[in-house]
């Protein structure tokens, strides 16, 4: 069976598209991790700088 002359080019294109998709998924995963760590660090830093949240006093007796 003989393949057309453009078959290797199609395989190369499919491989490159798959690699681009994997790279995009990897980039989104790393970005999500960085955003999650940044969120946690911001909350811990805010608590350390400004102290715990102010709580209301108990009602008088």
Task: Identify the notable features of this structure and list them briefly.
61 residues; single chain; 1 helix; mainly alpha; 0% strand
Short description:
Helices cover 72% and strands 0% of the residues. It has one helix at 7-50.
Description:
There is one protein chain. The chain is mainly α and about 60 residues long. It contains one helix and no strands. The mean pLDDT is about 90.
Please give the alpha-carbon distance between the first and last residues.
94 Å
Average pLDDT across residues?
A: 92
Indicate the radius of gyration in whole angstroms: 27 Å
Low-confidence stretches: none
Roughly how much helix do the residues carry, as a percent range?
over 70%
Structural class: mainly alpha
Largest sheet: none
Q: How is this fold's topology laid out?
A:
Layout: H1 7-50
């Amino acid at each position: 069976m003989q393949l057309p002359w453009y078959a290797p080019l199609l395989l190369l294109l499919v491989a490159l598209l798959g690699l681009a998709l994997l790279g995009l998924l990897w980039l989104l995963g790393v970005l999500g991790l960085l955003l999650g760590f940044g969120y946690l660090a911001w909350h811990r830093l805010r608590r350390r700088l400004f102290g715990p949240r102010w709580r209301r006093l108990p009602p008088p007796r």
